[in-house]
Amino acid sequence: MRLSRPTSINEALGLLEDHGEECTIISGGTAVMLMMRNGLLHPEHLMSLDRLPGLERITVDDGQVRLGARATLLDVERSAQAQAALPTLTSALTLVANHRVRRQATVGGNVSEADYASDPPSILVTFGSEVRLASVRGERSMPLADFLLDYYTNAAEPDELVVEVVVPRPSPTARTTYIKYLSRTSEDRPCVGVAAYVDTDVSGRCVDVRVAVAGATATPFTLPEVTGDVCGKPGDRTAWKEIAEAFRDGIRPISDVRGSAAYRKHVTGELVFRALENASTAGTDGATRL
Fold first, then answer.
1. How far apart are CA 66 and CA 211, in angstroms?
2. 89 near 107, Cβ under 8 Å?
3. Model's pTM, two decimal places?
4. Whether the Cβ atoms of residue 31 and residue 109 lie closer than 8 Å to each other
């Protein structure tokens, strides 16, 4: 195995152009090293991003939050600017794994792994986040919802590098929440997690409602046609029950050690209702572990 440690983005992109699918990218290493130690991954060429400058930046302005691909989950969790702009995300990050893992795991690595039982992607999807990718051919951006293709599969081309996740700031009148349900005390990975975004006008009618379910399907499960249908209607328990029932009926979850498909369908309906109710009535945004 060959190890490369480029010191500039251009050098890294050149290596990806030359080696393509033979090159495995390692950022924080919390996923790649575990797979290598367990014999699940045997890279011919390992490219570490630990010497790349600039990709650890967290930038907040009036319209968006830009999370550099090498920013760690702990960096984001502790960023005062990120806490002010995205309190549900930073609160949810405190529920991910443990302090040591969050000190190593990176934003870019987290979304690139496309782990179905990861918390941040579903939250980022409800915010309408985009992934910025770079290659020697140039740059492109795509919605995170489109970037996540399947179990542990993303839409990056072999010569592309994730350089940033761009998160639009929620509407000032919106409320967001994330509920993480654990069915096993021996681990922190969700059986089901639900992220909700609720924006209403002064009369209490829905302006924008978004929901994404984590841990049950290959990628965050959404029903934009259902959540969009309540816009213009009162944001109340009737609307939330309608959405919750649609999610319960529409989701096709997996069965694994954390729960059967039937169990996950039931839990999804309960948590979608609770998340929407919390987001619409709570005075502050945040995340909860059950």
1. 22
2. no
3. 0.95
4. yes
